[in-house]
Amino acid sequence: MNGVWNASLGMVCLLVVAAFGSAQDDPLPLARVVADRLQTIEDDLETDGDARKARRAATELFDRVIAVTPLDRPGPILDVAIARRRIRLVERASQQDRQSLFSFLRRSPNLSAALCFGLDSADSPQGAIGVLQVLRREHGERLERFANLTAAICIVRDKGAPRRDSATVPELFAHYAGREKRMFFGVRNLPVQLLVHVVDVAVSPGEMRWALARYGGDSNVGERYNDVPYDDAHFYQGAAKKIDSHGYTLQNLRKYGGICSDQGFFASQVGKSIGVPAVASAGRAGQVGHCWVGYFEGRGRTVGWNFLVGRYTEYRTVRGWVRDYNGRNVPEGRIAVLDALIGTTPKRRRTADALVDAAKRIRSLRRGKKQLPGTLGAAGELDAPRTPTVDAELAFVQGAVDRSVACLRGWEHVAILARTRTIDEKVIAQWANALGRVCGRDYPDFSAAILTDLIRGVADTSRQATLWRKARRYFRRRPDVAAELAMQEARLWEKAKKPAKAHAIYKTIIEKHANDGGFVLDALARARALLEKNKRHDLVPKLYATAWGKARQPEPSAVRKASNWYRIARAYADICDDYGMEKTAKKVRRKIKSVIG
Fold this sequence. Notes:
Largest sheet: 5 strands, antiparallel
Shape: globular
């Protein structure tokens, strides 16, 4: 009996050992393997402070992860992308601060991700670290609760305050975090890309508190544009601005008034002070430049940017430009497309950015003619590892924009591939169609900017010209956009040594768009150069006479010299002098004097 029992017990033990051994031999899930390796890399960095070694190890792991991770389960790519960005950020810190800073960021995963993915190529990582260190001393672990707010402040103030009397970094944080419940959209859940248009406020803490006390909870920030009385004497007679003899504050602007740029500044700063993303936007029609306000509007279920308040009818079809916190003039459309961030989760947005990181890494390997390393030996890997091809690169970008239409880095990556002639015409057409489908109608300025790079990527001149014409028809309701696309086609024909075709397009622009924007002056100059190059000097004065005849005379104002009518007239008079047409030149100048004064 004992023998039988012992034999049975031995068999059970063998079965248990076999089962246990089998389980141990099975590959571990991919996410767990990646997490374990990341922990080792980050533990080492926290211990020895060697950020360069950590960066190399994280990049090697990233290469392995992008080689084997399925696109429908991109979690490991996101995890490594965040860690890699965090390590690269810490590497910019001083040697004595690295370990402490890294430990803090590691304990603050939301802040870490918000900051690392919020920084772009125009930002200063060292400057952002400096701002973060100031906030850490003041608020410590509280920053993680306000992760997006903290990241936005670090990004906006990386190069210092916009004005001498602007709120300091601690004052900014205190205003928004300390009055969170009074902020119209709050400050915790707004994406960083929208919050930067809140915390780039350029007025003093006192003005911010005044705006919040007077306008807090206002759902229609755009109407504040009209709270600034228009300084008619300055605009129409050129008198000194009333505000110039007083301090330039929100309170004084409301009392003494200003012109459109002051109205845009006032409304945008009020919006920022009460927690509403807002910008001052400007554009130029045929008459004169103008400034209006753009603000993030939330009424009922409608949420998104509104760029219509203060934008007179003649500017509804003119491209607006915004001076951002880095001092760059960016198209209004690049900000408008941020509407699409609403309704997406932070994880989805960050995954989109991580997939673009993967695409960029593949591009780097592909251009360096390097291969991705082997597998991780984990369950959940692709059956066959990826290779660094253009198709793989595009697949990652496709995954990014599928998750977030407002993943600007994704669209811009495709534009780079087109501009460098890395993708063929068929692929360009596919992406152009996708762009038009998801962005074209709602975000025409953004779509046109990306589309321009895509079309330039078509090598064949005739086929590229066909695409320019199709694009112009698509944007026919935006004459300024259509005219700029026409200019692209004309330059194409110039480059192709087809001056007659280029001149015909320039002439069409001059005849149809003399009142739509300053680009008509560029079209005139290029058309003139073509005529003179081809010895058709006799047509140059006629060309300018035609343009001047189609331009509308400006309304009386102190800035009417910025109108197309005036600028074309001046150029026409000078050309008449050059061509010995003194009588005509004098006649044109008399007309200018009678209108302009």
